[in-house]
Amino acid sequence: MSEKATLEINGKKYEFPLVRGTENEVAIDIKTLRSSTGGVITIDPGYKNTGSCESAITFLDGEKGILRYRGYSIEDLADKADFLEVAYLLIFGDLPTQEQLDKFHSDIKENSVVDDDVKKILDAFPKSAHPMGVLSSLTAALTAFNPSSVDVSSEQDMYNSIVRIMGKFPVLVSWAMRKKHGLPLEYGDDNLGYVENVLRMMFKNPNREYEQNPILINALDKLLILHADHEQNCSTSTVRITGSSHAGLFVSLASGISALWGPLHGGANQAVLEMLEAIKEDGGDTKKYMAKAKDKNDPFRLMGFGHRVYKNFDPRARIIKKAADEVLGDLGVEDPILDIAKGLEKEALEDPYFVDRKLYPNVDFYSGIIYRAMGIPVEMFTVMFALGRLPGWIAQWREMRLRKEPIGRPRQLYIGETYRPFKAIAQR
Ligand code: CMC
Q: Which residues pair with 68 in a beta bridge?
């Protein structure tokens, strides 16, 4: 027998079907709520209880601290796969065979040249521009250089636009950084792996060959995998809702990049490092900052702590904390802010304010420390997050279009003035 939920409004009962996901998550299907009740809607600011879609890409259980892409655990993927394999997995649903992976990579390389005229747009930005703003603008601008719209009924057409953006995006990432640092713009080297190529494009010194460092390649691979998807977060929902109007892939991604920029989302990795630096400059008094974070009259929040979904621990944070120790050790870097971070974490995990609210370190708490040890400038941290999240956004956009989802258009509860007769300016 099908499962049902009953809702009673002012004495009248309405039934709605319950739907279950493959992991036994339960949802009330309220598609007919408004039509059957004569206009009643639900209200849920921040969508804390609202499922916006059915998705087969990423599963996460915030209570148990589980994160899986297409059924594979994040721990296994971070340990055993590389970023391009994970990108393929997320977008197309299965881990690639060697042949599929080689073809995917070769098609990406084939599409990795960015029109030289994009440099003119980049030139118009002041050096002071934040690279997230630059990246979002250039990603949207790519539409103008590749104007044909994607025919989503053709898998080939969709594939072509996917390899195009997977190829060009790392070039834009490197250009956003190099422009800020006054370095000549680089194109990639087709002999290199995807992640190796990113590092070379970012860091190649004009006067010498770039020497690859396997520690950096492994660290970046892992970080990008950990950031690759996270179901219906703010930026992903933005990509899906923009794409739901049938706007193109590149502009949908550009809107996702803008959403990611905020300090409550991807921008937290930059904010964490700035916070740890400020604590260090202030004499390393973590207790003072803990008190600020708990003070409701102080807007300060402990950046890198808390998560909308994880209420036990963020499995990505565990992997990253271990990786931070390893990478700093391998590179021989001693960073006092790693000790400050560990001290803050320890205090927070023992503090009733954080314990009661189930606030744990999230993915961004330790990632900036690794990025800094790798020589990545702080303003590029969120850009690196975007680079990692790219395949997740693409996968979610593709799924949304293939499932022919309707345009995203929430309702509201109007709380403004009721009808007022117009008042001429002299009478106001
Ligand atoms: N420091 C101090 N108090 C906090 C924090 C924090 N970092 N996070 C949440 N709280 C408190 C909050 O004040 C509230 O307290 P009360 O119940 O007394 O009003 C309670 O905990 C619940 O917080 P919320 O803001 O209602 O929870 P949310 O699910 O809306 O927000 C969050 C989740 C991630 C936006 C929030 O925890 C936060 O602002 N964290 C800091 C920013 C951060 O690290 N963001 C990265 C998130 S992970 C990566 C990503 O998503 O990109």
A: 59, 73
Q: Looking at ligand 1, which residue's alpha carbon is closest to its atom 20?
A: 357
Residue with CA closest to ligand 1 atom 28: 308
Closest Cα to atom 49 of ligand 1: 265
Q: Which of 221, 229, 314, 364 is catalytic?
A: 364
pLDDT tens-digit series, residues 349-358: 899 999 999 9
> Ligand 1, closest atom to CA 235?
52
- Rounded to 5°, angle at Cα 200 from 181 and 175: 40
Kindly state the helix (H) or strand (E) to which residue 67 belongs, with its residue range: strand 66-69
Instruction: Clarify whether 364 is annotated catalytic.
Output: yes
Pair 261, 383: CB distance under 8 Å? no
Residue 342 pLDDT exceeds 90 = no
Q: What is the pLDDT of residues 158-195, one digit of tens each?
A: 999 999 999 999 999 999 999 999 999 989 999 999 99
Active site residue 265: no
- Over range 378-402, report the average pLDDT: 97
Dist CA 103 CA 405 (whole Å): 30
Angle at 91 between CA 155 and CA 405, to 5 degrees: 70
Neighbours of 155 (CB within 10 A): 12
Return left, alpha or beta for 299; rule: phi > 0 is left, psi -120 to 50 is alpha, else beta.
Answer: alpha
- If one residue of 234, 305, 309 were mutated to test the ligand 1 pocket, choosing by the most ligand atoms within 8 A of its CB, it would be 305
DSSP sequence for 139-178:
HHHHHHHS-SPP-TT-HHHHHHHHHHHHHHHHHHHHHHHH
β-pairing verdict for 66-69 and 72-73:
antiparallel
User: Quick one: which H or E segment has residue 107?
Assistant: helix 98-110
366: nearest Cα among 276, 248, 231:
276
> Any idea what DSSP says for residue 6?
E
Whole-angstrom Cα distance, residue 302 to residue 348? Answer: 9
**Which residues does a 6 A CB cutoff place in the pocket of ligand 1?**
46, 233, 264-266, 268, 293, 301-308, 357, 359, 362-364
Best residue among 362, 367, 383 to mutate for probing ligand 1's pocket (most ligand atoms within 8 Å of CB) is 362
Cα(305) to centroid of ligand 1, in Å?
Answer: 7
What percent of the chain is helix, strand and coil (3-state, nearest 5)?
55, 5, 40
Closest CA to 137 of 260, 267, 254: 254
